[in-house]
Amino acid sequence: MKRRDVVKGIAGAAAVVAVPAGVIRAGDTWAAAHDDTGGEHSEEAVRDLYTEQYKGRTITVSQATGAVHIDGKELHVMKLGDGAYLTSMCHYRIEPTPLAAGRQAVDELRGANLLPSGTHHA
Prior knowledge:
Layout: H1 3-17, H2 30-34, H3 43-48, E1 49-54, E2 57-62, E3 68-70, E4 73-75, E5 77-79, E6 85-87, H4 98-109
């Protein structure tokens, strides 16, 4: 692999990460953003979610949307054109699935709490 190929790859990843702050949604947890049933979720909504305990953290992935939550807080995940996933926590490593991206984010957090990835100021 040539040095210019590595530089092109890094530049491409940097371009993907340079998403305007207004596009990044932060703040609410998945439950707060999607709970319109007064606390009761339909059986279909429960089946859509995959939950896993990883290194003492709870990772929840929506199979329909690919949304990833760590301990109830949304992780900003970007789906790339080739079916790979990139997170705001680890923007230099591309993962094959949203769950793998969530696991990588937990590794990067090293026990810290997930903070909102950005806000839009008008």
